[in-house]
Amino acid sequence: MKIRAILSIIIILTVILFVIYQYMLYQKYASRPMPTALHSKVEEASQQLITKAEETGITVVITDGFRSVDEQNSIYAQGRQTEGNIVTYARGGESYHNYGLAIDFALQNKQGGIIWDLQYDGNENGNSDWMEVVKIAKSLGFKWGGDFTRFKDYPHLQMDFGLSIHELKRGKRPRDVIDL
Ligand SMILES: [Zn+2]
Hints:
Shape: elongated
Order of helices and strands: HHEHEEHEEH
Number of strands: 5
Structural class: alpha+beta
Number of domains: 2
Radius of gyration: 22 Å
Bound molecules: zinc ion
Number of helices: 5
CATH topology of the largest domain: Muramoyl-pentapeptide Carboxypeptidase, domain 2
């Protein structure tokens, strides 16, 4: 009987400590500020993407990187409250761009124009330049928006480090899951 009582107390204390620990972790994450720039790993990989694509005769242009929550909200409004086509399904705080973990790319053709042509084969090797860039991006650790099932976002590349938007919103960051 005595042992059972002691065991019960230990179990109750363990549960209490666990709850306190979880709460402190939540507080620690919640007090973190939003990122203000592209994550260094993403920045590094973007530069490598440009270099590696150039080596195969493709000029990649990064058209978008870090986006603040305000910027995200205003592009979310586009095609809804304001004129234009819908360009995003993510509100402020719901895009990987808001955490510096995503970039958008386009191609530059020989005439210097910025194009979003998935068929364009400027280096004339029989393969779509766009898909060649996607392949390089994936080898660098990016996930491609063209693989998304809900909304195909062909210019979009992101590194989520296994973090969901929900976790990022709560303040969890790549440094919690990777060594930097
Ligand atoms: Zn994007």
